[in-house]
Amino acid sequence: MREHFQSELSQIRKRLAELGRQVLENIEIAAQAVLEANIEQAATVIHSEYIVDFSEVKIEEECLKVIALNQPVADDLRFLVTVIRANHDLERISDQAASMAKIARRVSATGIEPYRDAWCDMSRQVYDIVESSLRALLHQDQAAARRIWQRDKHIDTLRDELTRRLRRDILAQHSDDQTRFELIEAVYRLERAADHATNIAKAVLYLVLGQIVRHRGREFRRKVSGEKTRILFVCVHNSARSQMAVAWLNRLYGDRYEAESAGLSPGDLNPLAVQVMLESGIDISGNRTRDVFAVVDAGAQFDYVITVCDVASAERCPPVLGIAQQLQWEFDDPSGFTGTAEERLEQTRHVRDAIRTRLERWIEDEDET
């Protein structure tokens, strides 16, 4: 009886792998069809979607049958529940591919060309995250599942960057705006495919750890993985604003967050920042300034990169490797303050307090996600 049960589980796993391969192929072909406005490739994906739908139903039926007849418990039951959830998400990924294929029939290759590199980059990364989620499921790899979950933020960033560019060009009243409107929809479809892959990663964590982690990102990071959210604060000289931000975050939220700082053109630590932080009971006098480019070149990994300088300076910040989401908070630079010593000190106090207030508001919002 046990051998027969294990054989049924093996068969389900095999069917799921086959479905995953078909879904991956659909995503790849659909992205290429959009890029080239290829009607033949689009038709292939749309036809394949019917096969995926049929396979998804068959896998779910087999899982439910095995549960009903064998009444599995513990690991075996979690495996079957996870397969049902992942099976549904794979089918939804294929749905997104089919939607992209339909869009491919309504765009022009010349209209797509200005966005070729951005589209290729995003589609390649989405393909990779879908493939990785399937591999993590089949190998029950919780480390890979955690990485996939974190990478979803980066896909969101790529979506936002490309759609902003498309909307800007539409407002500029370029020709072939119909293709740009369609491409915006395709970008959102592509990003949704990554969301479903992330759901699969969360299902893997349930399978391995026995804990439901969706909607509990911060809690999971702290209590299950034991990791802290890593943040890099960046300003021009790494002399005041980024130093104060790090000091506040590590003091107030060091149990959950870990912060570092760096500068675009690192200088000397600002004595005004040292003094106002000491007034708040935090001694940063022993801190050193660092070059953000050196930090990036060293391959340091962060969840967030937060620039605390003006927008023009923030745009000089290099892209950080990994999955870092970039935020921009603008605060006045104490190095530019004028007046008497006491007036400059008072202005620096205002920056210190503004940074703390902004951090507290942001952490509150983060804890609600």
Topology:
Blueprint: H1 2-36, H2 39-70, H3 74-104, H4 109-112, H5 116-139, H6 142-171, H7 177-209, H8 217-223, E1 229-235, H9 241-253, E2 257-263, H10 271-279, H11 292-297, E3 304-307, H12 311-314, E4 325-328, H13 341-367
Parallel strand pairs: 1-2, 1-3, 3-4
Outline of this structure?
The protein has 369 residues and is mostly helical. The chain has 13 helices and four strands.
Task: Give a description of the structure.
- By secondary structure, this protein is mostly helical.
- The chain has 2 domains: 2-222, Phosphate transport system protein phou homolog 2, domain 2 (Methane Monooxygenase Hydroxylase, Chain G, domain 1), CATH 1.20.58.220; 229-367, Response regulator (Rossmann fold, 3-Layer(aba) Sandwich), CATH 3.40.50.
- It has 13 helices and 4 strands.
- It has a 4-stranded parallel beta sheet with strand order 2-1-3-4.
- α9 links the parallel β1 (229-235) and β2 (257-263).
- α2 (39-70) packs antiparallel against α3.
- The longest helix is centred in the N-terminal third of the chain and has 35 residues, at 2-36.
- The radius of gyration is 25 Å and the shape is flat.
- 40% of the residues are buried.
